Amino acid sequence: MSDFFSSFVDNFMNFFSWDVLSATLTDPVNWGIIGTLVLLEGLLSADNALVLAVMVKHLPKEQQKRALFYGLLGAYIFRFIAIGVGTFLVQITWIKVAGGLYLLWIAYSNLFMKKHGDDGGEVKNKGLSFWRTVLAVEIMDIAFSVDSVLAAFGVSDKVWVLFLGGILGVLMMRGVAQVFLKLIDKIPELEKTAFILIIVIGLKMIAGAFGFHISHVIFFSVIIALFGGTIILSSLRKRKSGSVKGS
């Protein structure tokens, strides 16, 4: 038990180690992984930022920003705890397999089982008090964070890589949600590509549980091929559609 507790504390202490942070910031591979996490967070969570905005809409203007700020703070605290605990637990084989299978289920349900005509998670204005609104935003933030944090574990096991990817992703999602929504509106196939990437990450996590490790070069090549191919196919599809209409 003492060894378990010691290993658990050592895992969290990585957050406060300058050597670990320095090694993270100076490794180009880590920045590639962080960029992947930010992109994934932005594509999957842009609409979530708008849901949160609707949740605080009934509050006075000055309280809206405070409620969203407290929600953002809560999201960071949740990530800190989840990443610290998760990078320790994800070393256990059956947890890796379970996490990978859950990611595959997320992707499958969104790609093949999502019903058209859903309200997209519309949140009605309940007129809650300030602190009850903050609590609702915190709960919603945590719910939104679970899937992205789990997906992050399939990409890396370094606490600072996961944390930086997570906090930058959340900041970006809150700050430029409209940009991501316009991007998805312009290239709707990107949303499906994001879930295909989750399938890749889920398979990578399961493979890692059985000792098969995919190199960073192959992983980044797959990402570039997925998103590059999606943009090219979308462009060709629009050009073909335009030529059909013009004929």
From TrEMBL:
Localization of this protein: Membrane
Transmembrane portions of the chain: 31-55, 67-88, 94-113, 134-153, 159-181, 193-212, 218-236
Keyword Transcription belongs to the record: no
Any one of the GO CC terms: membrane
Bilayer topology annotation: Multi-pass membrane protein
InterPro entries: CHP03716_TM_YkoY, Integral_membrane_TerC
Chief subcellular location: membrane
Pfam families: TerC (PF03741)
Keyword terms of this UniProt record: Membrane, Transmembrane, Transmembrane helix
Domain of life per record: Bacteria
Record family assignment: Belongs to the TerC family.
Protein name per Swiss-Prot or TrEMBL: DUF475 domain-containing protein
